[in-house]
Amino acid sequence: MKYILCILITLVSPVLILGQKKFNITFVLPDSAHVKKMNFYYYDCIQRSYIPVSATYTNNTATISHSYNTVYAKIFIDYNLGKRRPFMSIVTTEKPASIKLMSPINEGDPFNNATIINAHDCKQEISAMTAYIKEPQERYNQMYDSITPGWVPHDSLAFERLEEAKIAIENKRLEYIRKHSYSYYSFSLFEKFSISTLSPDLLLQQFATIFPARFKNSEEGASVKNYLLNRAILEDKKKALSFTATDIDSNKIILNEIYKKKQVLLVFWGTWCKPCIDEIPLLRAIRKKYPIDQLEIIAIATQSPPEKVRQLIKEQQLDWTHIVNNNSINLLYQVISYPEIYLIDTNGNVKYKKSSYPDINLENLNKTIDIGFRSIKK
Question: pTM for the whole thing?
Answer without folding.
Answer: 0.84
